[in-house]
Design brief:
The complex is a heterodimer of chains A (167) and B (83). Chain A is mainly alpha-helical and 167 residues long. Chain A contains six helices and no strands. Chain B has two helices and no strands. The chains are: A mainly alpha (167), B mainly alpha (83).
């Protein structure tokens, strides 16, 4: 007869295996999303410590909730965790760091990445960030215009030097 | 196709550039951290259960000893008379 402890160890092992399979498939895309958000450079490897830290923390929470996902997609769950985490520590991500979305404010980045890169519906993005749908649409249009160069970047408080220019 | 979705497609292509390399130990680090989180949560739950159990036991012991449902002994002595 197997003891409770053995059964629990078996469960942990199975959970770790399932989780590893999930990470192997999803980490590439999730890390890209995180790096777009923190606007760190994609190359060389290791140039995005903030994105890696954010993703590790988000994945750790997904792992802790693995047994209680109740059919929810672990990818969605981790993406939501990532977005919430980014929104909470947004004050850390104001400075441009040499990534693609340097010209955008953190909020614009979050909306643009969720809507266009991750393909999250407007309603879902609105619910996730706790703002009206119209606001999501407005921020998204604004970000698209900035990225295409048809609009000046949103002025940001506390940034003296022009955006996207290295000191 | 509308112009706004054309513009969005253009930005979408920009976003879909080269991917960063995933560190080899990412899953392991997340598993370790998640495991710690899980153990801490389990410990907190166990602690709450223990405190609740202790409270129930303490109440039962007190109730059996004090028997608060018994009417308190009368404090005023009945008037004494006839002697």
């Amino acid at each position: 007869m197997r003891t409770v402890r053995e059964r629990q160890a078996g469960r942990e092992r199975r959970r770790a295996q399932e989780f590893e399979t999930f990470v192997a498939g999803a980490a590439g895309r999730l890390l890209h999303t995180a790096t777009l958000l923190t606007t760190e450079p994609m190359q060389p490897p290791g140039a995005n410590p903030r994105a890696q830290r954010m993703l590790t923390a988000a994945l750790a929470r997904t792992y802790a909730q693995w047994g209680r996902l109740r059919g929810e997609d672990p990818y969605d769950r981790t993406r939501r965790e990532l977005a919430i985490r980014f929104a909470h520590e947004v004050w850390r991500h104001h400075r441009p760091r040499g990534g693609l979305l340097d010209r955008l404010t953190p909020q614009e980045r979050l909306v643009l990445v969720l809507r266009l890169y991750e393909g999250v519906a407007e309603e879902q993005a609105a619910a996730l960030l706790g703002v009206p749908v119209e606001r999501i649409r407005a921020i998204c249009n604004r970000s698209v215009a900035t990225m295409r160069g048809t609009r000046r970047p949103t002025a940001r408080w506390g940034l003296q030097r022009p955006l996207g220019v290295s000191p | 196709m509308s112009r706004s979705s054309n513009r969005e497609d253009e930005v979408r292509r920009m976003l879909d550039g080269p991917h960063p390399q995933v560190p080899a130990d990412l899953a392991q680090r997340a598993t370790e951290r998640g495991g710690r989180l899980l153990r801490r949560r389990r410990f907190a739950r166990r602690l709450v259960q223990l405190v609740a159990l202790a409270a129930v036991v303490a109440f039962t012991v007190w109730a059996v000893a004090a028997q608060p449902w018994q009417p308190p002994p009368t404090e005023t002595t009945p008037p004494l008379g006839g002697w």
